[in-house]
Amino acid sequence: MMETERLELAQLSYDDCEFVRDLVNEPSFIRYIGDRGVRSLDDAYEYLRKGPLDSYEKHGYGLYRVCHRCDTTPLGICGLVKRDEFPHPDLGFAFLERHWGRGYAYESSLATLDHARNKLALKHIIAVADGDNEASIKLLRKLGFQFEDMVRMSGESKEICRYALDLPE
Ligand SMILES: CC(C)(COP(=O)(O)OP(=O)(O)OC[C@H]1O[C@@H](n2cnc3c(N)ncnc32)[C@H](O)[C@@H]1OP(=O)(O)O)[C@@H](O)C(=O)NCCC(=O)NCCS
């Protein structure tokens, strides 16, 4: 678990099926991350099982649920994803649209990067974003990420931007 001034980041569990179903069906999530085909609570269970929960087991990190410290209502997710096609883990974040613009993504990303450096001893983090995803790119720049190159993810036709950040020892 990670704590910031306002927020708490904790591992997702099967109790989060409803929240996850709502989050991955937000229009912004579908537009910029993709349609994960999660429509029912059973679909959300499978998404959690094959995605974040499997990642905690395999890599010791994953995407975390972000809540207020004093409230268990989830606001969004933030954390690290290890994709087979990239050698380094990448920073991921998505928040329910009604919670945007309050700095939650920035604050939880800072905590994730601190955890990556100090607990996981990672030295290099990447991030990928659609070139049209202004909110995400602005946030990555604010966190210190630099544009690296354009990449095409497996199964996708469009190239997206890869950003990178070195974590000082
Ligand atoms: C990306 C996302 C998490 C940003 O959430 P957020 O709540 O706006 O983030 P924050 O409040 O922490 O804002 C961080 C910075 O991003 C910038 N920003 C936020 N929304 C923006 C927008 N629509 N256009 C341009 N910049 C924007 C702001 O500059 C802000 O910095 P500031 O506080 O100095 O103004 C949110 O838009 C989201 O969930 N999008 C859908 C999922 C997604 O695209 N994830 C990323 C995949 S690569």
Q: What features would you describe in this structure?
A:
- The chain has 169 residues and is of the alpha+beta class.
- The chain has one domain: Gcn5-related N-acetyltransferase (GNAT) (Aminopeptidase, 3-Layer(aba) Sandwich).
- Helix content is 34%, strand content 27%.
- It contains five helices and eight strands, in the order E-E-H-H-H-E-E-E-H-E-H-E-E.
- The chain has a five-stranded antiparallel β-sheet. Strands 6-8-7 form a three-stranded antiparallel β-sheet, covered by helices on one side.
- The longest helix is centred in the first third of the chain and has 19 residues, at 41-59.
- It starts with a strand and ends with a strand.
- The mean pLDDT is 96.
- Bound molecules: coenzyme A.
- Coenzyme A is lined by residues 28-29, 32-33, 93-95, 100-106, 129, 133-136, 138-139, 142.
Average pLDDT number: 96
Highest CATH level, the class: Alpha Beta
Can you count the helices? 5
> How many structural domains does the protein architecture include?
1
Report the CATH topology name. Answer: Aminopeptidase
- Strand coverage percent: 25-35%
The biggest beta sheet is recorded as: 5 strands, antiparallel
Question: What layout of secondary structure does this protein have?
Answer:
Layout: E1 2-3, E2 7-11, H1 17-24, H2 27-32, H3 41-59, E3 63-68, E4 74-81, E5 90-95, H4 104-118, E6 124-129, H5 134-142, E7 146-151, E8 160-166
Bound molecules: coenzyme A.
